[in-house]
Amino acid sequence: MIRYDFLMVILGIMLGCDGVPSHDPDRNYKSIEKALLSKFILAKDSSVIQLEEGHFIFKNSLILDNKKHIILRGRGIDKTVLSFKIQENGAEGLKITNSENIVLQDFTIEDAAGDNIKVTDTKGVIFRRVKSAWTGQVNEENGAYAIYPVLCTNVLIEECEVLGASDAGIYVGQSKDVIIRNNKVYWNVAGIESENSENVAIYNNQAYNNTGGILVFDLPGLTRYGRKIKVYNNEVYDNNLMNFAPPGNIVGAVPSGTGIMVLATREVEIYKNKLENNNTIEVAAVSYALIEAINDQKSQKSNNSASSAQTYDDELPDPYYNPYPGAIYIHDNTYGDVSLFPNLSNDFGRLFFWKFGFDRPQIIWDGMESENYLLSNGSLNPDYKICIKEVGVKTAILDADNDFEDLVTDPESFNCEI
Amino acid sequence: MISGCQPNQSASNILFEEEEVGLAVNNEDLGHKNLSAYGFFTGILADLVPAKNVYPYELNTPLFSDYAQKKRFIYLPEGSIIEYHPTQVFDFPVGTILIKNFYYKDAQLTDQKGGIIETRLLIKKADEWQGLPYIWNKEQTEAVLEITGGSRVVSLLGKQSINYQIPNMGQCKDCHQMNGTLQPIGPTAGQMNRNYLDDGGRLINQLRRLSRLGLLSISEKEIFPKISVWNDPASGSIDERARAYLEMNCAHCHRREGSAKNSGLYLMSSNHDRLELGIMKTPVAAGNGSGQLAYDIVPGDPDGSIMLYRMNSTEPAVMMPELGRKMVHKEGVALIRSWIASLK
Q1: Window 89-148 of B, Cβ < 8 Å to A
Q2: Is the same domain home to B282 and B316?
Q3: How many Å apart are CA A75 and CA B68, to the nearest integer?
Q4: Which helix (H) or strand (E) holds A259?
C-alpha cells in the first residue's frame, strides 16, 4: 500500500477520521452568475467564453444550448473553479445540449446537486484538463456523474481529474466514437463507465481507489446498445472503496474491490492493462440477470399487492436486448499478487474467500449462458466466446445460475483467440 | 487542506461576494425591452385585455407551476392561419407569439397582494421558436425582458413561502424541446378541446371558435381528440386523468423526441408499453433520484415507486420535473398515487 500513502501526500488530501476519503479545498467564492449566464445565452457560434481565475458560485445550472464551435476555457484546474454548492434550480452544473463541436477545458467544477457536467445530443465534445469533483467526505449525497456525455458522437475526454461521484466519475452513455485517455479517476463508485456506447477506446488512464475501476455496461430499454470497446494501457489498482451509490442504481451492484467489469456487452477487448490489488476481482464478465438480482436484493423490497383495474400491454421488456457478455478477449495484462486480504464486504468477496481461500482467481465469468450459447452443431457460439490469454493468472467460471455449485477453475473454454 | 471530522458546511451558511448589479446587455435583437411595446393588450396593461389579433385560450390539463394562475393568449399576424394537427402541437404561422402570464390572486397569498409575476413569450421566427421571459414591476405597470430570469418571494396562504423562479432564457428549452428544437407544448387539439366563456357570456368550444374566426384550418366536421382534465373526475377515469397529468407535467422531456429520451421512460398518454411507462423499469441515471427504490413504478405500490418519490421532492437532484416548481403539487401527487395503486 505504499502507493496509496504516496498519493495522499502528492494530492495534499487525507482520509477523514473514520477512514472515508475527504476532499476539502480552500474556497473563496464570488458570484458572476448573471453575467456568465448572459454570455452562455448570447454566445455566437465560433466564439470563446473565457473564464477568469477565481472561485465562482452558482444557484442555477449553466445551460449552453444549440451552439456550434464554442470553447469554454478557464485559467487552469483549481485556478478557475465553478462551484454549485448552493444550487437551487436544475440538477446539473454545466449542461450542454443539441450542440456541435464544444470544447471544455482548464477549469474545476464541483458540487452540483446532480451531475457536474452533462452533455447531451451533441456532435463533437472535448473535455480537456477539467477537474470534476464533490467536496467533503465522499457519500451517497454526492451527485451521480462528474463528466457525463450522453447521446453524443465524437467524444474526447482527456487529462481530466475526477473524484467523488456517487455513481460514475467519467460516464459515457448511449454515445458513439469515444476516446477516454490520460485521465485520473478516484474516490468514485465507478471510476470510468462506458454504457450502451459503441466504438469506445479507454486507454492510458489511472483508475484507483474507486469501488470499481473501469466498467463496460449494457442495459436494456435504451436508445442504443454498446459494442466495440477497447480497454488498454490503463493502470487499474486499489479499487477497494466502499460502494456508496444510492441503492436502486445499477452501479450499486458493483462489488467493492472490482478492477474491470464487463456487463452484458459484446466485442470487448481488454489488454496491456496493469491490474493490481483490486481485492475482490481484477476482471469480471457478468450477465445482466446477475446484477439485477444483486440490485433487487439491495434496494427496498416492494410489495406487489396489486388490486384492480388498469393493465398495460404485457410485452417482454426490450426483446432486442442481449443480457449476456461475449466476444470478449482478455490478454497481455499484468497482475499484481492476489491480495492476502480478501474483500469480505460483499457477496463475491465472501464467495471467493470461501471457495478459494487465499488462492483466489483474478478473472471470472459468471457462467450464465444464453440459450444460444452453443450452436446447433454443438460448438461454442462465437458471439459468446470469452477468451483469455494471460500468464500466471487463475480464472474461473462461477456457475452463478446454479448457486455456484459447479464452479470451474482455469476452464479450457477460455483458451481461445478472437 | 487537512480534512477534519466536521460535517460538511451546509449550503445556507456559505458566504460569497455578491454580483454587481446593473448588468448592461443590449438584447434589442432578441425582442422588445418592454412587454407593452408589443401592443398585445389594450387599456391598462395588467388587465390583460387582448388587442386585435390576440386570442385567449385555456388548456384541459396545464403544467403545475407552484399554484400560479395562468392567462394564455395567441397573437396571430393579420391574415394568417394555424394549421390543425390531431395529435401534435399545431403548426403556427411565422410571426405567431404565444403569450403566457403567470399571476397569483390576492386570495391565494398571505401578507401580500396578488399580481402578475412574469410573462413568457414564445415567438415563431422564420425557422425556429424563441422563448423570452419578461418580469413585471411591483407597480404592475410594465414587464421587462430579463434573459437571465429572476425570482420572487411568494407566501401562499395555507401553504408555504417560496422563492418563485422565473426561468432564464436558457431554461425555456429544458421543457420546450422536440428533437432538439424549441417547441410550444400546450396548444394541441386534445388540450384546447374545451369550452371557453366568450365575451358575450356564451360557452363555445375553443377550437370551433378559432375555426369560425377563420384562424384554424379545419372543417366543421372534424372530430377533435380530448385530453382529460386532471382534477375533474367527470372528464375521465383515474387512468385517463393520471395519463393526462403525466403527459403535461413529464412528457415534454420524457418522450422519444424529448430531452430525457436517454432515460427510456416515455410518458405520452398515447404510449401503452409497460416498460416505457416505467412499470417495473429500473432507473438509468437517477442518482439520488432513486430514493433507494428499484423501479420507476411498482404496480399497486405507490410508495415503492421512484416516480412518486421524485414528484414528492423539492430537492434539485431528486425532484421531477427538474424545473418549474418549488413546491410539491399535493393534489397531483395524490392523483398519481391512486393511479399507481390501481395498476397491476
Answers
A1: 147-148
A2: yes
A3: 43
A4: strand A258-263
The helix or strand, by DSSP H or E, that contains position B162, with its residue range, turns out to be strand B161-166
What confidence tier does B246 reach under pLDDT thresholds 50, 70, 90? Answer: very high
Half-sphere exposure of B206 toward its Cβ, with a 13 Å CA cutoff?
22
If asked whether residues B206 and B325 sit together in one domain, one would say no
pLDDT at A1: 29
At A5, which helix (H) or strand (E)? Answer: helix A2-11
* CB-CB under 8 Å, A35 with B8: no
pLDDT digits 0-9 by tens, B125-161: 998 999 999 999 999 999 999 999 999 999 999 988 9
Judging contacts by C-beta atoms under 8 Å, the chain B residues touching residue A150 are 262, 285
Q: Is B152 helix (H, G, I), strand (E, B) or coil?
A: strand
Domain assignment of residue B227, yes or no: no
Does B275 contact A137 at a Cβ distance shorter than 8 Å? no
**Residue B223 within a domain:** no
Residues B267 and B333 in one domain: yes
CB neighbourhood size of A144 (10 A): 30
Percent of chain B with pLDDT over 70: 94
Using CA atoms, how far residue A81 sits from A23, A116, B11, in Å, is 14, 12, 17
Q: d(Cα A324, Cα A218) in Å, to the nearest integer?
A: 9
What is the domain extent for residue B249?
233-342
Of B137, B134, B139, B163, give the one whose Cα is nearest residue B149: B134
For the stretch A55-93, pLDDT in tens is 999 999 999 999 999 999 999 999 999 999 999 999 999
